[in-house]
Amino acid sequence: MDEKDKKQEVLFRGLGFTYYPIPYIAPIVFIILIALLEWGTNTGFISNLTLPKPSGVFQAFVELYDTGLLYKHLAPSLTRLIIGSFLGLSLGILVGVGIALFNLARAGLLPLVAALFPVPKIALLPLFVIWFGIDEGSKYALIALGTFTPTVIATYAAVDNVDRNLIRMGQSFGLSWFSIVRKIVLPGALPGIISGLRISLAIGLILLVAAEMLGASYGIGAYVLEAGSLYDLERLFAGVTILSFMGVLINFISGIIERRLLSWRT
């Protein structure tokens, strides 16, 4: 057979829609932005009362590291985020899959989740303090609830949108209900579930800061609140920078997990 007659492999992402990473663009954008801010604050074009010098923020970060306070604030924040998010995400995936697959669960739980989703979770923090105390329990509960509802909705939508033709094909081959769910439904819903997890983790990070601003001695949120009350902009932006790095780290880890689990799409 002639080489021209051979069928070429058609990738999942067609020609013109394939993503090629450009590794140096993001650091260049950050460097340019920081350089412009440093120039603006040094020349007076940007008032130091509105934005601090990036060099001053870096110095505040160095002092935070040298004094050992970085670990004291970062360790409890990461612990709260990991435990609270794990509870919310794992329970959210189970409930979302159950709502999508079982009519009784959909009829009973979907209206409840829809009612909880638009409620500002920060407003429930005083109630959680009453229920679970002002220590770690209320913080775990707030983060868990905040990540639970968007995970349920994302999981339910992802499972519900799996191509019905694939399910019918599995039935035509005589696969059992459990095999169809395990081999067709869950793999097909995985991209939507992972996208939902990214959003849920971002919400969890926001709620972490809110929870630590109430009744926490250590934590990035407590550090930001203390710096803001003293109007110490350098320390305030140092805390915000740490939160930004945490968000970047979450996105990076999510990307690794996505590439590992969804390698079949390439």
Detailed description of the structure:
It is built from ten helices and no strands. The chain is mainly α. The protein has a single domain, classed as MetI-like fold, CATH 1.10.3720. α8 packs antiparallel against α10.
CATH architecture: Orthogonal Bundle
End-to-end distance:
27 Å
Using only C-alpha atoms, the radius of gyration works out to: 24 Å
Question: Number of folding domains?
Answer: 1
Biggest pleated-sheet summary: none
The helix tally amounts to: 10
Any key phrases for this structure?
74% helix, mainly alpha, 10 helices, MetI-like fold, 0% strand, 266 residues
Show the helix and strand layout.
Elements: H1 25-43, H2 54-66, H3 69-101, H4 103-116, H5 125-132, H6 136-160, H7 164-172, H8 177-212, H9 220-229, H10 233-261
Helix pairs in contact: 2-10, 3-4, 3-6, 3-8, 5-6, 6-8, 7-8, 8-9, 8-10, 9-10
Brief account:
The chain has 266 residues and is an all-alpha fold. 74% of the residues lie in helices and 0% in strands.
